[in-house]
Design goal:
Layout: H1 10-30, E1 40-43, E2 52-55, H2 57-63, H3 67-81, E3 85-91, E4 94-99, H4 101-113, E5 126-130, H5 142-160, E6 164-171, H6 176-188, H7 194-197, H8 201-223, H9 227-236, H10 243-257, H11 260-273, H12 277-301, E7 307-310, H13 311-314, H14 319-327, E8 332-333, E9 339-342, E10 350-354, H15 362-377, E11 381-387, H16 391-403, E12 412-417, E13 420-422, E14 425-426, H17 437-455, H18 463-483, E15 491-492, H19 495-498, H20 506-523, H21 538-559, H22 564-583, H23 592-615
Parallel strand pairs: 5-6, 5-11, 6-7, 11-12, 13-15
Antiparallel strand pairs: 1-2, 2-4, 3-4, 8-9, 9-10, 13-14
This protein binds one RNA strand of 77 nucleotides through strand 1, helix 2, helix 16, helix 17 and strand 15.
Length: 624
RNA sequence: GGCUUCGUAGCUUAACUGGAUAGAGCACCUGACUACGAAUCAGGAGGUUGCAGGUUCGAAUCCUGCCGAGGUCACCA
């Protein structure tokens, strides 16, 4: 017998076989060669009899026969050619195939024997995933959490789908923003450090960034009363623009032209760029505080990186590549010396690549970094996890790398995700509505603790074991809440709902797993001797079908760079199991074979739930 | 304004990429713990998939036009 499950993709082999046989039979019966791509095979919808369904509508037009007739011929052929298929029925253009009990039982047997069910064969491709990419002037917030969870779970999923994965982050450790924090710390800090205050380093530095912004705002307010401000307003205002509107829009220019604090910050940046020793030392000291803080947060989130790219080291990259492109006439130069790319053939504008003074801009750096990464790792694909406000930027970047004929250009992907809103609207740092990452993590864990303590099922565990359970439940709730939403969609984050532990949540899935562990513990050892269990009900069949589809789900999730596919699958599987658990006796089954079958099935569901949730970065508790 | 993404129950969302009667959860109402864990299960109510056309065996999904919401159009990153 063939090892239908040998490559861990039993479903695909079955589906491919069905498609091939359909191609054969339509050729033989109608003399028409059809493209197997026209056929779709999927699990049968409940409310219809059968396990797998083939949609044959596309053939109806091609063959000019009635769906009923085509369906009957296909069904008869499949039943006679494929021992796995027991019988079939045709409804409209759908052929519903019922697989034999034997097929299902042997499927379960083989799945159980598999160590890493759902991990697909290595495909020899290497993918790099960039995520998190924080600025070092303030702590991580809810938006970063979505980014980090998407990136790290995507890495897990692509690894499971057969890729070799390299996880990286770009650290934006230079620029005017960090200089603002440094300046404020020098002016108002009184020498305080994370050690002296006990404050987490990233929060301490963030505090001074906020302080700078406040001082700057005050300075700006005061300046607006000056004659100079009045003069600027009179000469520069657009018609029907109020004073407030004007000065709100003018803020940036004020910072660059008149502001004392702005001037000091720019001077500091200049000194940094000139390599001034004191400035560099302060810079690396404060960045060090921030990294220590970030590391704590990353550890709690359970994420890590294989390599860090510091912007302070990469910000000058790209210039020589742009100049080479200029030589090849891919780019052009304007009279003032600045270098541009013309993307009008792609329905885009011209875009600047080098300033008139010859220095790099943001996109120049990204071009250089991409090439650097290819030299470092020889990657086939590159995934950037970056919010959707940068969609245009990445379209341009990819187009340029394409023009430069980079070998990985086909494999570039921008995993663009929507911003996270609060029920009250957008997060705004100015209004203090930003949800801090560390606070959020604390909140979900303490909520988990509270719910668990009320239930009181963990009283026999010692404190550290209990804390571990609370941690897993709290983080499970948070991660699931964020990852179950399709990345492309803007999401509303309701802090109340995020700590919910009922319904479509992480703890709901964890609870199914915990129930399974509890039954397995009570059962003692499990025997895989269930081949004589020849009939099983719809609930069991439903679970088997879902387990059967799991590798396909992993593949789809990886193809679409979308963890929500896994999250929704895990929820559906947990839901089916809860129902099964409620409706069907396991330990007190009517026969040994039935008991063995149900225990084995439970065990397999537990394995798949754990594997799936692990791909989301969620750990399963043994008890809760 | 140009380009772009999106609009599904009161709220948060799903729909195997064009397939069967649009699925769930929250909130609301009803029922089930002396059976393997009630963070559970069963049931009820809640939908003209923003609106109007079009394409075809078949549309939440594709096309066109409106309406509404975001994003983006820097020699910032």
């Amino acid at each position: 017998m063939s090892t239908f499950f040998g490559d861990n993709r039993g479903h695909m082999q079955l589906f491919d076989k069905i498609k091939t046989e359909i191609v054969n039979v339509t050729h033989r019966s109608y003399g028409t060669s059809i493209d197997p791509g026209l056929l779709t095979v999927s699990p049968t919808r409940k409310d219809f009899e059968g396990d797998m369904t083939v949609v044959i509508f596309p053939l109806v037009k091609l063959l000019r026969k009635k769906p009923q007739d085509i369906g009957a011929i296909i069904g008869d052929h499949l039943v006679s050619k494929m021992p796995e298929i027991d019988h079939f029925n045709v409804v409209q253009g759908f052929v519903n195939l019922s697989l034999t009990s034997d097929y299902w039982l042997s499927f379960l047997e083989k799945s159980l024997a598999h160590d890493e069910y759902g991990k697909l064969a290595r495909n020899g491709e290497k993918v790099m995933i960039e995520y998190s990419s924080p600025n070092t002037n303030k702590p991580l917030h809810l938006g970063h959490i979505r980014n980090i969870l998407l990136g790290s779970s995507c890495a897990n999923i692509m690894h499971a789908a057969g890729f070799e994965v390299v996880k990286v982050q770009v650290i934006n450790d230079r620029g005017i923003a960090i200089c603002k924090s440094m300046l404020a710390w020098l002016k108002y800090g009184g020498g305080e450090t994370p050690a002296s205050t006990g404050e987490k380093g990233d929060h301490l530095v963030g505090k001074y960034y906020v302080r700078f912004e406040k001082e700057f705002r005050d300075e700006y307010q005061e300046w607006q009363q000056s004659p100079k401000a009045q003069e600027v307003f009179e000469s520069r205002k657009k018609e029907d623009q109020s004073r407030d509107q004007f000065f709100a829009a003018y803020k940036n220019e004020y910072f660059n032209r008149y502001s004392e604090l702005g001037n000091e910050a720019r001077e500091m940046l200049q000194k940094w760029e000139d390599g001034d020793a004191d400035t560099i030392e302060l810079w690396s000291q404060m960045n060090g505080w921030v990294y220590a803080g970030f590391d704590q947060t990353y550890e709690r989130l359970g994420v890590d990186f294989d390599h860090l790219y510091y912007e302070s080291e990469t910000w000058k990259l790209g210039k020589s590549e742009v100049l080479q492109g200029l030589d090849k006439n891919l780019f052009f130069q304007k009279d003032d010396g600045s270098v541009w790319v013309d993307l009008s053939h792609e329905d885009k504008d011209e875009k600047i690549l080098l300033r008139s003074d010859g220095t790099s801009v943001y996109i120049t750096q990204d071009i250089g970094t991409a090439m650097q990464r290819y030299r470092d790792y020889g990657i086939d694909r590159m995934v950037y996890v970056v919010a959707d406000e940068q969609n245009y930027h990445f379209q341009v970047l990819f187009e340029i790398l394409n023009m430069l004929d980079e070998p990985y250009a086909e494999g570039l992907f921008h995993l663009s995700y929507g911003m996270v809103d609060l029920p009250s609207g957008k997060m705004k740092s100015r209004e203090g509505t930003v949800v801090d990452a560390d606070d959020l993590i604390d909140d979900v864990i303490s909520e988990a603790r509270q719910v668990a303590m009320e239930k009181g099922d963990l009283e026999d565990l010692d404190e550290s074991a209990r804390d571990e359970v609370f941690f897993r439940i709290g983080m499970g709730a948070l991660k699931f809440f964020i990852l179950k939403v399709n990345p492309g969609k803007r999401m509303t984050f309701d802090p109340e709902a995020s700590v919910d532990m009922q319904g479509q949540t992480g703890p709901y899935v964890q609870n199914a797993y915990v129930r399974i562990q509890s039954v397995l513990r009570k059962a003692g050892s499990i025997s895989a001797d269930f081949r004589s269990c020849q009939s099983f009900g719809d609930t069991e069949k439903h679970l088997l079908t879902q387990i059967f589809m799991y590798p396909e789900i992993v593949k789809r999730s990886a193809n679409e760079y979308d963890p929500s596919v896994i999250a929704n699958f895990c929820y559906d599987l947990a839901k089916s199991y809860h129902r099964f658990y409620h409706d069907v006796p396991i330990l007190t089954a009517e026969s040994d074979a039935a008991r063995n079958f149900r225990l084995s099935l439970s065990s397999m569901v537990g394995t798949v739930l754990e594997n799936g949730m692990n791909l989301l970065g969620i750990e399963m508790p043994q008890r809760m």
